[in-house]
Amino acid sequence: MRVERRPKLFENVAQQLRAQILAGDYPVGEKLPTETRMTELFGVSRTVVREAVAALAADSMVEVRHGAGVFVIDNPTLKISAITADMGNRISRAVNVLEVRMGIEIESAGLAAQRRSPSQEARIQEAFFEFEALLKQGEPTGKADFAFHREIAAATNNEFYVEILDALGDRTIPCDRSSPWYSVEVLSPDYLGGLQREHLRILQAISAGDADAARDAMRAHLVAAKERYRQRLSGQQADYSQNHMEAAAKPAL
């Protein structure tokens, strides 16, 4: 049986301070709370606080100025690491949602092709054309995108497909402005136009009553969405890192 090493007290304190510094709670040049105050805030001894500060100083995040206190110093490399880690988390979470949708929506498209009523098909078409209108107007398309997929789920006449999409909520459409993983990089006209062309193939297959074609079209749509989202955010991450590394390399005037 493997026994996990528990973090030492000073590591926990250092981790909390590190997160606060990277979040901007303590900007560059600002003084950290006094040693006495930190013992109160974290409920630890002075020795633990000193060890935590020493760890941050070793990471070049703070500078100890004797007689003055502990001050936050600039460290572009650590900032980039934190931001890229956050982007990586956003990518993986969004991709995970899309993978769940693949497990659900591919079959729901096939069932919708077999079971939809005329009124249900009309609602799918209505959501499709709403997306088209919003795209031409340059307006957010997320709600229409979600409605398109939700109406397909409703057309299965199995309420559990709808319940699952509703449970995912604003995480369902990664490119929507209300999504937790929203990025302007995935809201370009080319990106959204590609989504709509894929929607058209799904709609045509459902309208034709071709279950296999509907499944294939939905699969292609979700796989492409997953790859586009990964590539665009990965590209944004690379650009951000490159720009900030160049900025960090410039000598101070």
From TrEMBL:
PROSITE patterns: HTH_GNTR (PS50949). CDD domains: WHTH_GntR. Pfam families: FCD, GntR. Keywords: DNA-binding, Transcription, Transcription regulation. SMART domains: FCD (SM00895), HTH_GNTR (SM00345). One of its GO terms (molecular function) is DNA-binding transcription factor activity. This is FCD domain-containing protein. Residues 7-75 form the HTH gntR-type domain. SUPFAM superfamilies: GntR ligand-binding domain-like, Winged helix' DNA-binding domain. InterPro entries: GntR_C, TF_FadR/GntR_C, Tscrpt_reg_HTH_GntR, WH-like_DNA-bd_sf, WH_DNA-bd_sf. The lineage of its organism: Bacteria, Pseudomonadati, Pseudomonadota, Alphaproteobacteria, Hyphomicrobiales. It comes from Endobacterium cereale. The keyword Metal-binding does not apply.
